[in-house]
């Protein structure tokens, strides 16, 4: 059965809206300050040339726009996609878009995660803009 372009467009928009509504109902972070972050899309899970480091190393030697991998825990949520991340050597503010959380997986403040992101160093703030969050076993 052939659908007209208008009906096809309406059907596509309705399907996208239903998918968005379903995602918005699924919280992705459940630690302190959580207010219903959403699930996300899939991502690459193979090897990486981006160095794993500690927060202390990143804060002491990191350059603006440098990519880094950190392992630790999201310990609190501050709204507007901002969290505090702790790895035992220090804490850093991280910015995580809702769609960068693993699809269908809830992340608590007790779980170890790996963050892959880009360091944003300004004169008044330093944070990691996360591009991928992986829950560690």
Automatic annotation (TrEMBL):
Disordered, as annotated region: 30-50
InterPro entries attached to this UniProt entry: BOBF_sf (IPR036700), CarO-like (IPR005220)
Protein name: Uncharacterized protein
Pfam family, one: BOF
Signal peptide: 1-24
Sorted UniProt keywords: Signal
Organism the protein comes from: Lampropedia cohaerens
Keyword Metal-binding annotated: no
The UniProt record lists the keyword Signal: yes
